[in-house]
Specification:
The structure is a single chain. The chain has 587 residues and is mainly alpha-helical. The chain has a domain of 249 residues: Serine Threonine Protein Phosphatase 5, Tetratricopeptide repeat. It has 20 helices and twelve strands. The chain is globular, with a radius of gyration of 25 Å.
């Protein structure tokens, strides 16, 4: 499907000669839309522009948190975390990309009912409904990204961003487009999601008989081939009802969270139920993919994935490009010919419990500071390269000790680790970067994983009904966390004693759920935003582990210099200047 996108984006660029700032007229002095009725390819180019603006890789914003630092001290995230974050320097800005996507989506929506996709009335109507549903779902997705990155307290109230429901052009009164409240933005997301659900199938799959065709299309004379043409499996990876429900779960979790629940109507129960709407379509608490922990490194699945299909762990993904070694070039240690860019911190390593499920600071954990990697949660060495780990296509031993005699040691060369750790998660370790025998592999990039939605439910359900409450659903926060930790291999033989000990304690369960989210979603772009929506301390020092003569010493690596108001991101300085938008407090 995304090969088609590249073609249709080129069509769009015919009438959009340069990338626009958010409130600039979009199509003046370019081809107008008067011919769109008879050119469905022209119309779909507007929609596909929204798809091409979806995230296409990993940002590693964790390097601006307590979970990681960059081996490159001039990295934008390092600069951001150490005091340079400003309204005119914002590496996590979502404004321009998201509003540009919304502009094209609104153009598409304004013309969607006028386009002729097919002479057959039923087929034509299915195309119209599908494309409008896609627009509504994508518009909700980008609005969530805007609210997450730019919503905040301003003038004594929680504000969002301008709500753009019509395409902007030279006649637009830009002075009237001011920031809506955060609540209005959330409600707009919900409204768009409801429309998407009404118009889209749960999934794009071929049907074998007319029983699978909605009555409104049957009444128009649609047949099986007609349905499969428009709503069948050739359209996989597009927006669906299932994806729209996942986006709603994200938005509701944000709106119910401590930093964003001021003046908003979304409750924790709402957020839990919206997550349950997704999980109930995935087998409930029993639907967690047992092989989903290392979804990124399962070459047997990734390399043989049929067109448009998802592995069981992934709800929505981008199209997979051809084989590549770019990620490994960024993240492999220098001895494996990588740049060692992302260095997990001791802070994150300490967050992994023991194999018996107890946190390392619990008296029953059995943690030995002199042997800190022994009997730990299996996810630790699945996600992070520690001293003595084996890595790469030939299982080479990575030594991070300063006296280990390799370039992988702490601060040995420019690309060596600054913390004593390298990142393993997300990598295909069958990639070989040796210049004498380089190879590449395919990588999968999820936009939404089911584990995220399970964790959304656990967090919201615990806040709404406590650890064991279900609120009318068939599973509790405890049930979900038990499933996640069982999959991770914690207490596989003796039961999860720590989880059992806190299942009646809402506060302890909250701490555990947040920690499970930190581990399970690590390096997927969540930690930066989670700390903020939880209104947590942002300025914890990033620590590392210095190993010499076999002794471990915790060292300070990089400060995190955030002010309290930085739980909310800024409105871009250029937009404040041009249009008089109210800036968030403190910026």
């Amino acid at each position: 499907m995304y090969k088609k996108i590249l073609f249709f984006v080129s069509v769009v660029l015919v009438f959009s000669s340069c990338e626009k700032e958010f409130l600039e007229p979009a199509i003046e002095n370019n081809r107008d839309l008067s011919d769109i009725q008879d050119e469905p390819g022209f119309a779909l180019g507007l929609l596909y522009n929204g798809y091409t603006r979806l995230p296409g890789g990993w940002s590693f914003s964790e390097m601006a948190t307590d979970d990681a630092v960059s081996s490159d001290e001039d990295n934008n995230y390092s600069n951001m975390a150490t005091g340079q974050w400003a309204e005119n320097f914002n590496p996590v800005d979502q404004w321009q990309n998201s509003f540009a996507a919304i502009q094209y989506l609104n153009l598409m929506l304004s013309k969607a009912d006028t386009v002729t996709y097919a002479e057959n009335p039923a087929v034509n109507q299915m195309f119209k409904d599908r494309t409008k549903g896609e627009v509504y779902g994508l518009r909700a997705y980008f609005m969530h990204r805007l609210l997450q990155a730019h919503g905040g307290m301003a003038g004594g109230q929680l504000l969002g961003v301008p709500i753009m429901l019509e395409p902007q052009d030279a006649s637009t009164d830009f002075s009237s487009l001011q920031r809506a409240t955060f609540e209005e933005g959330i409600q707009q997301i919900y409204s768009d999601i409801e429309k998407a659900i009404e118009l889209l199938p749960l999934d794009y799959e071929d049907i074998g008989n007319q029983d699978g065709i909605p009555a409104k299309y049957v009444n128009m004379g649609a047949g099986v081939n007609d349905y499969n043409r428009v709503l069948g499996k050739t359209n996989r990876l597009r927006m669906t009802e299932r994806v729209a429900l996942g986006i709603r779960s994200r938005a509701a979790l944000l709106a119910a969270s401590p930093a964003f629940n001021q003046g908003t109507s979304t409750t924790w129960a709402d957020a839990a139920n919206y997550a349950a709407d997704v999980l109930d379509r995935n087998g409930g608490d029993g639907g967690l993919d047992p092989d989903g922990l290392t979804w990124y490194n399962d070459g047997g699945v990734i390399d043989n994935l049929a067109a448009g299909l998802n592995p069981p762990e992934i709800l929505w993904r981008a199209n997979m490009p051809g084989p590549s070694s770019t990620l490994e070039e960024q993240l492999y240690p220098p001895s494996l010919f990588g740049d060692g860019l992302v260095n997990p911190t001791q802070n994150l390593v300490n967050a992994f419990p023991m194999a018996n499920g107890y946190p390392i600071d619990h008296p029953d954990s059995g943690y030995d500071p002199a042997n800190p990697y022994v009997n730990r949660d299996p996810r630790l060495t699945a996600f992070i390269v520690v001293n003595g780990s084996q890595m790469g296509p030939f299982d080479e031993t990575i030594i991070t000790a300063v006296d280990g005699g390799t370039i992988d040691g702490l601060n040995i060369v420019e690309s060596s680790t600054r913390t004593g750790y390298y990142l393993r998660k997300l990598l295909r370790e069958d990639v070989n970067l040796d210049p004498q025998s380089v190879n590449q592999q395919r990588h999968i990039n999820p936009l939404i994983r089911y584990t995220e939605i399970y964790l959304n439910y656990a967090e919201a359900a615990n806040e709404a009904w406590g650890p064991m409450g279900t609120g009318g659903n068939s599973y509790s926060a405890y049930d979900v966390i038990r499933a996640i930790r069982e999959r991770a291999g914690l207490s596989a033989n003796g039961g999860d004693l720590y989880l059992e000990s806190i299942k009646g304690d809402q506060d302890a369960m909250r701490e555990l759920i947040r920690n499970e989210r930190r581990l399970e979603l690590s390096f997927e772009g969540f930690r930066f935003w989670d700390l903020r929506r939880w209104n947590e301390d942002l300025s914890e020092m990033a620590f590392g582990d210095r190993i010499e003569d076999g002794n471990h010493e915790v060292i300070s690596v990089e400060p995190r210099l955030y002010s309290d108001y930085m739980i909310y991101g800024p409105i871009p300085y250029s937009e404040v200047l041009k249009f008089g938008l109210i800036q968030n407090m403190g910026w």
